Amino acid sequence: MRPWHEEVQAIATLFTDNWDDELLRTNFVDLVLQLAVEQPLKTPFVAAVVLVANGNRPEVVDMLLEKLAGRIEETIGKGEWRDVKLYLKLLGCLQGCLEGEGVFPVLEELFSRAVDLQTASSEDTIGTEIVKIILLTLPYVMIAAPGQWAQKAADLMEKTEIIASEPHTLQTLIEPYQLGTGEENPPQSQSLIGLLQAQMQNEANNGWALPCLPRPWEFPLKEVEQRSKIDDAAKHALPTITIPQTVVAGPRPLFPEIYFSVYANQDVESVPPLANAAASLIRDVLLDTINVLDFNRNVTARHLIDLDCYFAPRTFAARATPFDRLRDIEPPKSTWKPEDVAVDAVFSQLLQLPNPEHKLVYYHSVLTEACKLAPAAIAPSLGRAIRFLYRSAPLMDLELSYRFMDWFSHHLSNFGFTWKWTEWVDDVYLPDVHPRKTFIAGALDKEIRLSFAQRIKNTLPDPYKEMITPEKEKDTPDFKFASDDAPFAAEGREIAGLLKRKASDEEIDAVIQRIQSQAIDREIDALVASTDVFVTCVLHVGSKSLSHVLAAIERTKDRLADAGAASDAARSQIISATMAYWSAHPGVALVIIEKLLNYSILTPETVINWALVSRAGNTRGEALAAAHVYEMVFNTVMKVTGRVRQLVVKPSSSLASNVDESETRDREIKAMRALFAAIEDALASWATGSKDEMIEASDGEGNSEGERMVRQWGQRWLRVYRRRAAIEEAFLVEAEKELARRAEEQARSSEAGVEVVTRMDAD
Amino acid sequence: MRGPRCTVERLDQPSAYFNNRNKRRRFDKDQRDGDDDINMQNDQPEEDPLKDATTLYVGNLSFYTTEEQVYELFSKCGEIKRLVMGLDRFTKTPCGFCFVEYYTHQDALDCMKYIGGTKLDERIIRTDLDPGFTEGRQYGRGKSGGQVRDEYREDYDEGRGGIGRALQARMRAGSRDRAGSRDYDDDYGRGK
After folding, report:
1. pLDDT tens per residue, range B72-122
2. Which residues of chain B neighbour A545 with C-beta distances below 8 Å?
3. Which of A123, A126, A114, A129 is nearest to A170 (CA)?
4. Of A35, A131, A302, A518, most Cβ neighbours within 10 A?
5. Contacts of residue A591 in chain B, CB cutoff 8 Å?
6. What contacts A618, CB < 8 A, 6 or more positions away?
């Protein structure tokens, strides 16, 4: 492999030698800009090519700066903050060939917007984002023009300090660990912005050494001619970049960020320590790479595997060095494992609250591809990450521990379901409400969903096998009415028969009537009894596959809707019957419930009440530890919030329908708030241990291990839905602002439109 | 519009296979499939039939892969509106492909990017954007009822009934059966 500077020079020369090709000139400039935002790891190298080309053809820098300034202005205007950062990084790398103060006036101007925003509101997130961008641009400026701008940088950082050190009001909501649930103390979370400020201050104190960053524009001392050519090359004025008075949040909601690592607190540093600027600088460019390249996960994985190529030599230990061998590395040689750094970055996204930029499955797929590309290097790093997360899952935010479970089972499904289960074998004997036992049970269920019980059983050591009950190995569940022991067995069989031969409503009605009158005789709820029988029969008739059951529901939807509408208890029984019938395969039950929600046979409240009040109540709170109960509630809430979001951002189609639309919108928002209130209500009593069922079952003190764990589950659930509620409220506020802004814009443009029309009339 | 071409290939593009099929259709309209109602007016610029596609063709499934497994994996990209399993047109049993329909175009694109080429039931599956399911397309178009690719496949694939069925038949009966060529034209038979 050729050294960087030779490669850089070869490309620059190839370009300037063909300067007469006009198309090439434009393409070159456009490609430089596109690379900066699509493959940010390459930015310093691209900048180096530009700097060398500047020696022969200074015009190219003017062409580039013209467009680059335009892009920066445009992306700031739209609030596309990541692109702003990536363009500024490119510009920062070119500081050496800029006239005057170069990038600094832009950074200062940006900072003044941040100050305005932060002064106006303590909940502002744009100002924080701007400060983050400034702090992440500075290092590139400092290495591009070493030794010149220390005072400028110090002045700027003195100002950013105030914003960076202020903890954000939303920060507690998005911390990855839940405080105060257990005796163990979770690792301290670090606000990204606070960390950045401290790291850069450190760098400033050390004369901006920044040893990890590549400097491909530096030529070896013996290349005297090339060195002086770069130094003496023309300087260029940066075209004016106008920053609008009010900046906008842009298309992606902004939240304060936390620096998260699965490799913190190890006895040997396999990733850069928090105090080191390298931690943030490497992470930042990896995250941009990952999130920008979501359209090709193979390339993302390739960049992650090759990440050591994009940083200064000796920044990392050799690839695929086993963790145990890091100990033998003598200082000052680096012990940072490139695989750990890569895996850490992906997990920080997978486990980002409230949500990462892309669907979670994207981050799954990146880890899968990385593992496929370099199994020997990546798999051990993943293994250590899994062990860390398994250990910390009980302390983690509940949403995150389920994200971990979902990833884990999906990941294994891509690699033959192999995992060293033996190392957790003791945990099989924990009570079912223990978070680690829940994790195992939930992960196995998810594995089975992606495969089948017998297959998964074969991957497990003996003690785990008992967790996979014989029911799970059956193709279809038993029909409880097949045995005469079940109440209403004869009627159940009769209805199933009628459904199978698609008999008339009257015939079914007759049997339902019979069930109801028998139920009244036995003094049980008649509607609940008949609903249970009917739903169980529909499920039985459709047991062969999801299409069968969906077809069966489609045929009986009116009767199901009537049954559900008859009483709250009957509606709740629809869920009970479904969960009971598919108890061995809760995944199937969940799909059915989702479809019943779509038909409005069930309402979101039914689901919430079933899970958090009745089911949790009947199990003295232990249902709160079941992964599928969480999944059911979470999916339902996401469905509701998703619909509200869709309604809120939908542009109104016409004035006439506008009234209807805003009525629907308001109604749905109200319903969503009521749903969150119901969740809060139900969970708060579990979290404090004041639930009747808990007090009744209690030994009096409420201090038994089981009760303590149920309270913890309650607290963890509560935190998830309080956050969800807060996020949706924040979304509504932002959407409102955006609508107002758009309406204003529209009013302005229609005024202009009227003017044009009048003028045309006059003509 | 997505702007200029990306510096790396996108995984949410239709496959070369779809594009070729589509191109050919434009030229020989007489042979257009009856189920294909893509509007192709002669002189109007043709609209991309996949512009708002919400459906994916999913191939290389095992014959034993169930709807529930497909649901579990594909729901990771969004709620599934409809799932149609591909069936052997004689035996009405799964024959290794399906159509997954989402509610939104974005979910379908994300599925191309994040799920296509990963494993389901321990097989690498293939996804392709599809203009939409129409009745009849759920059946294999191979001579013996399954997909065309399973007629003459020479490798032994346990999840897809061993070696090609036509080959199996030939081995059983000697090679008296001469294959006609036209009717093997399965929309997705070529696999990869």
Report:
1. 999 999 999 999 999 999 999 999 999 999 999 999 999 999 999 999 999
2. 66-68, 85
3. A123
4. A131
5. 68, 71, 75
6. A693
